[in-house]
Every structure is written in C-alpha cells, then in structure tokens.
Amino acid sequence: MSAPSVAEPKETRLRGTSREVVIGHRHRFCVIGERINPTGRRIFQEQLRAGDLSAIERDVKAQVEGGADVLDVNMGVPLTDEPELLRKAVQMVQSLTDLPICIDSSVVEALEAGLSVYQGRALVNSITAEDERMAAVLPLVKKYGAAVIALPNDHDEIPMDADKRLVLAEKIIRVATQEYGLDAADIVIDPLAMPIGADTTTSLVTMETMRRIRDQFGVNMTCGASNISFGMPARHTLNAVWLPMAMASGLTSAIMDARTPQVVDAVKAADVFLGHDDWGMSWISAHRAKQAATA
Amino acid sequence: MTSSPEEILRGLFDETLVGNAPRVLELTEEGLALGMEPQTLLFEALIPSLEEVGARFERGDFFVPEMLIAGRAMAGAMERLRPLLAETGVETVGKFVMGTVKGDVHDIGKNLVNIMLEGAGFEVIDLGVQVAPEKFVSAIEEHHPDIVGFSAFLTTTMPMFKANMNALEKAGLRDSVVVMVGGAPVTQEYADAVGADGYAADASATVKKAKALLHEKRAKVTA
Hints:
A: alpha/beta; TIM Barrel; B: Rossmann fold
C-alpha cells in the first residue's frame, strides 16, 4: 500500500524594490502587516480624504520594526478616488521600505493603478471564485507578473464546510492556470478564517480546509488572522494561539497585526517547532537584537 | 413548580441574560401555565433582559458570544409566544426588513443586528445576503416595515445603498419607510451621502438608533 500522494509544496516569490520574500510550506511564516488600512480608523480616513498620506510613514516604520515581511496596503475610503490614493500609497510605501507589498482593494481600477506603479513582484488582494471577479483581476495579475490571494467563496455564500471550500479552491486554481496562464505557485488561497465568537465550530472547519488544500494542491495560504478574535476579550492571546495552530495545519502566511510582539513572537516560535527556522538561528538572533536594544 | 409570577419574571430575566435557552423556555411555559399574559413575559422580562445584554456589550462587559446565546434564548421563548401575541393583537415595537446588499455575501454582522433588534421587540424579516434592489422593493411592498436596513461589508458593494435608494424612489416607497445602513466600512458621512435616515456602528447602537428613528417618525405622523 502506498502512502496517499501529497502535492509538492509550492513557493510564492514576492519582490519589493530590492528584497525578495518567499512564501512556502518549508519556509518561515510570512507576516503580512495589516495596518495600512483605513477601515475603522476615522482620523486616518479623514486625512486620506484630504489627500494627507503622512500617517503611512509611521505605520510602515512600526510594522517593519515589528517583523513584517510584506505590507498590505489598502486605501478603501468611501467617496474618494481610490485608484489615485492607492497609486500614491504604493509609491510612498516603496520609497520607505524595500519590502514587497500586498495591494489590497475590492476595486479593480484601484488594483490596476497600484500595480502600474509597483516596482517588483506584488501580491494582489484579492479574487473570489466568482467568474466576473476572476475575469476582471486575473489578466492584471498576469500582465504585471504578480501573485494573487483567492477566497474560495462564490456569488451565493461563504461556504461553512471544507468540502465546498475545496471545490471552489480547485476551481480557482484550474481557471487561473488554464484560462489565464498563471502558475499555481502564484495563487495564495485564503481558507476563510471566520470569527470564533460568532460560531465556535468554524475554526476546525478552517483548519481542515488548510490541511486538505496543502495536501491536495501544495499551494500557499494566507488569511486575515485578526478577524478570528472579533468580538472576544483578550484578542492578542487568541490570535497568538490560533496562528501556530493554523501554521501546523498548513497556513504559510497571514495578514496580521505586526505591531504586537505577543502575536509576532508566537509565529516566530512556531517556525522553530515546525522546522522552518534552522537551528532556531532566527529566533536566537531576534533575541540578541532585543537584548541589544534594551541594553 | 410553585413559582410566583414575580419569580418567573426574575428567572426569565436572569436566565435570558446568561443565554440558558432550555431554562428560558421552561420558565415561559411555567408562566403561561400560571395564567401570565404573553406580553407580560415579553415586555417585563425578555426585552429588559436583552436591553441589559446590549448595555453590557456597550460597556465592554459582554462579548459577542454572550450576545448570541442570549439572543438565541430569547428567540426560543419568542417562538412559543409569537402565536399567542398575535392572537391577543399585541403590536411589536416595529417591523424591520433587513438584508445584505447585492454583490455581498457577508452576514455575521447583519445577523448580530437582527438578534439585538428582535431582542428589543422588533419583528425582523431577514432577506439574507445578495439582496437585489427589486427584492428590497417587493419585500417592503409585502411587509410594510417601519424600517429597512441595508448591510454592506465591502467598499465595492456600498454603492448598492444608492442603487437601493433609487429603487425605493422609483417604486414610490421612499417616504413610507425609514432607511438605515451599516457594515464595517460604512460611516456616518457615507450614510448621509446616499441619503439614508440612519447609521449605526454596531448591533447595540443599531437598536438605539432604530428606536429613536421610529419615535421621530411616529411623532411626525401624529403631529
């Protein structure tokens, strides 16, 4: 009897102005900083509406210092010219850091505006399994040589069982590779992490989805990790425990809070135990850097 | 089984507050067996209890799961009481038609709002997700709600608020119903820009706003 076949793990390569970041099942976890996003930030929204992008500088600095590998940039402010804002924000962030960017918008024109000025290899956030969304975004991903985050939900619903999510993930990978000429390595599936406070069974479904996607397709995965603790107390602790569990299930990156040491440290520690940090040398050097900083 | 009406009301309040659905249903049955009026159980125990849940949530003392289980406990009792209330002709606080706009499949936030609205005594007609403008129109024509609520979770689906408003205008329904909008990316400014009557940032605030808007509307009608 032969062991069940497991797909070869794929590597997603992202590049900023100079730095390359590899997302992969045999690599250290990729921390995508979530902070450059005006949702729920009233003052930041008002500044952006007035064309003032200066707050971004502070956000970039805090996240890079916190250990972000990639920065998510979202300029979703209602009643503004989102393409223009995103274009400017991408340029500004690239002038401040050489880390790759995850260009995040639900507006197709904004994604294109961001991609058109981006230097390197971006991650696009995101598509779903809906045909129209794939048809609008995937040609851009191909044209600009980017990678893309894909959510296995369709027009009707966010599926609450792993089987349906697998069917939609398979559809996305098939369509993106066969119809739009993308490499499966450049498709990063979001296994859909839902708030645990709204339904206590949902996290097990997400982890089953992760294991099956890893084993069947070998593709990389990411998700909005702060979402899982919505509506609960002591959110940092929940996030810090959930991420290593998800990593053991196959999650290879997350759009997450890179400014909270408790959460980032949990991820870095999990890298050691998962064999993704050889001899724990990254862990050790991070420890030394902290010591030096407080000495 | 020798509880007094006062003990029933106290028990209903306390057990709803902690989301003990089986006990809430038992107490409801006991109260009815004692000859208590369904509206007494509703207005003197269940609704005040959910109001307390909302107040604790606003203070940060209660969390989302507690709101959900309290709402579920209340819903169980309401299933038993609703037909009785209908018989006695008791009016609900108001009627609310709710839906997530077309193009959007997010429903967690909307469902939380529904629970708190029902907890406050509203009758909620939930149209689900992906609700097209014409579906809102036909639901309003069918149910004659006091308030219609549009929910959107994405900046790309928020423009559906305006499309819905236009559809209400076109159907000649705009003045007959109060419009509320909400969802993670929605702001008061955006609500104003699309011409909605009200916006609230979370479930508990939605209940307060809905009651205030209803009050305004009824004051206008009787004035």
